[in-house]
From TrEMBL:
It comes from Rhizophagus irregularis (strain DAOM 181602 / DAOM 197198 / MUCL 43194). The lineage of its organism: Eukaryota, Fungi, Fungi incertae sedis, Mucoromycota, Glomeromycotina. This is Uncharacterized protein.
């Protein structure tokens, strides 16, 4: 009796997951690919960023404060580049027209 119930349950589970796989291939490609590639996507947790108000006295380098000047070691990476043609920048900043869509 228990063996029969167990066998029925196993068949139901097999049928369920076959149907789910077929449905995922059509309607949920993300889950299908993750399953096929045997990968578990990691989620980014955004509540880890610490933000301090300007009145705080916390000087930790791990705490972001938008009012502090950029660290000197970052300046070469974030300073404007002089070798870019200004016309190219104007083209990028121009609004997109309907004909371009």
């Amino acid at each position: 009796m228990i063996s029969k119930e167990r066998s029925d349950w196993n068949l139901q589970q097999i049928e369920y997951f076959i149907n789910r796989r077929n449905d995922d291939i059509k309607n949920n490609q993300k889950r299908a690919l993750n399953s096929i590639l045997e990968r578990n996507p990691q989620k980014i947790i955004l509540d880890r960023l610490k933000y301090e108000e300007s009145c705080s006295s916390n000087k930790s380098p791990m705490v972001y404060n938008g009012l502090n000047p950029m660290p000197e070691s970052w300046r070469p990476y974030y300073s404007p580049r002089s070798n870019i043609n200004p016309d190219a920048i104007k083209l990028l900043a121009a609004p997109i027209t309907l004909s371009e869509l």
